[in-house]
Design a protein that fits this description.
Elements: E1 17-21, H1 50-62, E2 67-71, H2 81-89, E3 96-101, H3 106-116, E4 120-124, H4 130-137, H5 142-154, E5 159-166, H6 175-185, E6 188-193, H7 211-222, E7 226-228, E8 237-240, E9 246-250, E10 263-266, E11 271-273, E12 282-283, H8 284-289, H9 294-306, H10 312-317, H11 328-333, H12 339-342
Parallel strand pairs: 1-2, 1-10, 2-3, 3-4, 4-5, 5-6, 6-9
Antiparallel strand pairs: 7-8, 8-9, 10-11, 11-12
Helix pairs in contact: 1-2, 1-9, 2-3, 3-5
The protein binds iron/sulfur cluster.
Length: 344
C-alpha cells in the first residue's frame, strides 16, 4: 500500500488513479472515437519506452497513485506488453493494475498478461452483431473479440468487465441483449453515454442515450432495478437486477461525476493530462529525456495536481449549445487532443 500523504487538488480530489496510454494506434475505427478516414499519429520516437513508463509509474505511486490502467488506442498492439506489465506489477505501492482493450488480440495474450501480474481486464463490446461492428467500427473481427473475452475469463483475472458505448440509432436496441450476454458469461457490463470528447467528430446530443433511458430499457425487460450506493470514486454508477446481476452506467454526458474524479492520464508520448477534456498537459517525456531527476518530476506533478480545478464534463454539460468539442483541423494540429491518444 502506498504510504504517501494524500495529494489533493483544489477541489479536494486525491490523485489515486493513472490511466497510461501505451500507444495511439488502434486496429478498430469505432465511430465514437476514430470516425475519420485518416489520422495524424504520434511520431514513433516520441513514444515512451517501457523503462520510462516504469520510472514515471514509480514517481506517481510515490505521490499516492495506487491504481494503474493501461489503455491506448489499442494497448495490445504495443509489442511485448507483458514485459511492461511485469515491470509495473513489481511496484509494491500498487494495489491494482488493469487494462482496457477492444479484445481483438486478447485470446493471444490473456495468459501471458495474467502471468505477468495484470489483475483486471475491461473489454469494449458495443454490439453482439458482427455486421454492426463491421459497419460501425470497420472491423470484421467480432468473433476474435468474443474469443478474447472467453480467454480472459479462463485466465484467472480478478475481474473481467465489458464496456458498451450506447448510441441512439446504432446499438440502443441491444442494451438488454448485451446485459443478458454479460449475465450468461458472468461479467459485469457497463453502459457508457456517448461523450463529446476530442475525436468524436460525429457527436450530437440527439445520439446520446442517457442513464435514465438505459435504466428504462433495462427495467422494461427485467423489472425494477436497485441502485447500489457504494460511495466509490469509480466512474460507474452500479445497479442490480432482482436476481442480483450487477451492471453499471457511466453517465459522463448527462450526469457528470467530476467531483469524484481522482484520475489523471498519460499519453503514449508522455504528456500528463489532468482531465479527459483538458487542453494543455505537462510534457514528462521532455523532463525525462533532458535528465530531470525523480524529485524534480515529482515536484512538478505535485504542483500540477495541487493547482488542478478541471471539471471538463461538468462544464460541457452547462453549455446551452453543445456540439463537437474539436473540429478535424484542430485535432490534426495536435493529435494529443484525440481520445485515442488520451486513453479514454
Ligand atoms: S471530465 Fe475531466 S474532471 Fe470530469 S470526470 Fe472526466 S477526467 Fe475527470
Amino acid at each position: 500500500m502506498s504510504s504517501a500523504p494524500l495529494l489533493t487538488d483544489r477541489l479536494g480530489r486525491p490523485l489515486r488513479n493513472l490511466r497510461i496510454s501505451v500507444t495511439d494506434r488502434c486496429n478498430m475505427r469505432c465511430r465514437y472515437c476514430m470516425p475519420e478516414a485518416d489520422y495524424v499519429w504520434l511520431p514513433r520516437q516520441s513514444i515512451l519506452t517501457f523503462e520510462e513508463i516504469g520510472r514515471l509509474a514509480g514517481i506517481f505511486t510515490g505521490l499516492g497513485v495506487t491504481k494503474l490502467r493501461l489503455t491506448g488506442g489499442e494497448p495490445l498492439l504495443r509489442h511485448d506488453l507483458p514485459t511492461l506489465v511485469s515491470l509495473l506489477a513489481g511496484n509494491s505501492a500498487l494495489h491494482d493494475l488493469a487494462l482496457t482493450t477492444n479484445g481483438i488480440l486478447l485470446q493471444r495474450h490473456a495468459l501471458a498478461l495474467r502471468a505477468a501480474g495484470l489483475r483486471r481486464v475491461t473489454v469494449s463490446l458495443d454490439t453482439l452483431r458482427p455486421d454492426r461492428m463491421l459497419e460501425f467500427a470497420r472491423s470484421a473481427r467480432h468473433g476474435d473479440v468474443l474469443r478474447g473475452i472467453e480467454s480472459a475469463l479462463g485466465a484467472g483475472f480478478d475481474s473481467v468487465k465489458l464496456n458498451t458505448v450506447v448510441i441512439a440509432g446504432y446499438n440502443d436496441d441491444e442494451i438488454t441483449d448485451l446485459l443478458e450476454f454479460g449475465r450468461r458469461q458472468g461479467v459485469e457490463v457497463r453502459f457508457i453515454e456517448y461523450m463529446d470528447v476530442g475525436g468524436a467528430t460525429g457527436w450530437s446530443p440527439a445520439q446520446v442515450v442517457s442513464q435514465g433511458q438505459i435504466l428504462q430499457a433495462v427495467e422494461r425487460r427485467y423489472g425494477p432495478v436497485t441502485a447500489r450506493h457504494e460511495g466509490s470514486w469509480a466512474p460507474a454508477e452500479r445497479f442490480a437486477l432482482r436476481d442480483g446481476t450487477v451492471f453499471g452506467v457511466i453517465a459522463s454526458t448527462t450526469a457528470p461525476f467530476c467531483r469524484t474524479c481522482d484520475r489523471a492520464r498519460l499519453t503514449a508520448d508522455g504528456t500528463w493530462l489532468l482531465c479527459l477534456y483538458g487542453e494543455q498537459g505537462l510534457d514528462l517525456r521532455e523532463l525525462l529525456r533532458i535528465g530531470a531527476d525523480d524529485a524534480e518530476i515529482a515536484a512538478r506533478l505535485t504542483a500540477g495536481w495541487k493547482a488542478r480545478t478541471d471539471r471538463g464534463a461538468e462544464q460541457r454539460a452547462t453549455l446551452a449549445e453543445r456540439g463537437v468539442l474539436h473540429q478535424i483541423e484542430t485535432l490534426r494540429a495536435d493529435p494529443r487532443r484525440e481520445m485515442h491518444t488520451r486513453g479514454g
